[in-house]
Design goal:
The chain is mostly helical. The protein has one domain: Up-down Bundle (Rhopdopsin 7-helix transmembrane proteins). The chain contains 10 helices and 3 strands; from the N terminus they run βααβαααβααααα. It comes from Cervus hanglu yarkandensis.
């Protein structure tokens, strides 16, 4: 497919779904609707968690952070993606590409750590209920959230800077719909073995290690709940942990498939759709998962709507 000849020398061409032009109009509509739902759903969760005093708990503090991350992650990717889908020009400036890489990578890395912290929060709530308030006190929760953000930003400053400093020898056709580390590394005109090793190590630390820790946390949770015969306790544990476990499965399942599986395992189009899922679709689904499966959030939304109607 021919690209716009007016591309500036320093600009990048995001090939994305350009090899499937018949899908671009459909994707534009679907992604636009998904993005609007992301804005609405995550903003609603942030407002409800902040305004409703009954939700001023560690679980909803972390959920607010997750919603903010999803909101920013989608915003760092979707507007540029929609712009590229609606016309023949698939370009992004070098500055825009660098900003997108730094922002999306830092947010995605932070989310990996935050989801792990949320699993620890659920472990303490279910397995150490009597000590929950003393362990998960506000200052400790803020410190944990700060660690998640520091890990995300730190990883980005290292990976992003090294990636953007690679010589590209005029290569500017990015085989993706966004500027991300693997796609940018492939533009380099030097041996990238060291960069691939670095990316593999980062994947181990930020994807496989969190998944392992989350599985251990839920292993302890299942062990603790299995000793209790009360059906009500089972339901409470399922309601408490089910939403988080579903969100973890969606995010880590698709992102792991992109970063861990060998390139030959998935075709280019399959990788594009997997990337689209964890960067665009998952931020849309997360608020729906937490509101549809969570009585506290649904109750807070109802109270908020009643207050607005009565005012």
């Amino acid at each position: 497919m021919e690209q716009n000849n007016e591309t500036s020398e320093g600009d990048f061409i995001l090939l994305g779904f350009s090899d499937q032009p018949q899908l671009e109009a459909i994707l534009f509509v679907v992604i636009l609707i998904s993005y609007l739902l992301t804005l609405l759903g995550n903003t609603a969760i942030i407002l409800v968690s902040c305004l409703d005093s009954k939700l001023h708990t560690p679980m909803y503090f972390f959920l607010t952070n997750l919603s903010f991350l999803d909101l920013c992650l989608a915003t760092s990717i979707v507007p540029q993606l929609l712009w590229n889908l609606q016309g023949p020009a698939k370009t992004i400036t070098s500055t825009g590409c660098a900003i997108q890489l730094y922002v999306s990578l830092s947010l995605g890395s932070t989310e990996c750590v935050l989801l792990t912290i949320m699993a620890f929060d659920r472990y303490v709530a279910v397995c150490r209920p009597l000590n929950y308030t003393s362990v998960m006190h506000p200052s400790f929760c803020k410190s944990l959230a700060g660690i998640a953000w520091l890990c995300g930003v730190g990883n980005t400053l290292i990976q992003g800077t090294i990636t953007l400093r690679l010589p590209r020898c005029g290569h500017h056709r990015v085989h993706n719909f966004l500027c991300k580390v693997p796609a940018m590394i492939n533009l380099a005109c030097i041996d990238i073995h060291t960069n691939e090793v670095q990316l593999f190590v980062a994947t181990l630390v930020l994807l496989l290690l969190p998944v392992a820790l989350i599985l251990v946390s839920y292993g302890f949770i299942v062990q603790a709940v299995s000793k209790i015969k009360s059906l009500q306790t089972w339901r409470r544990a399922l309601g408490t942990c089910g939403s988080h476990l579903l969100v973890v499965s969606l995010f880590f399942g698709t992102s792991s498939a992109v970063y861990i599986q060998p390139k030959r395992f998935y075709g280019h189009s399959q990788r594009e759709f997997l990337t689209l899922f964890y960067t665009v679709v998952t931020p849309t689904l997360n608020p729906l998962i937490y509101t549809l499966r969570n009585k506290d959030v649904k109750g807070a939304l109802r109270r908020m709507l009643r207050i607005e109607q009565n005012s």
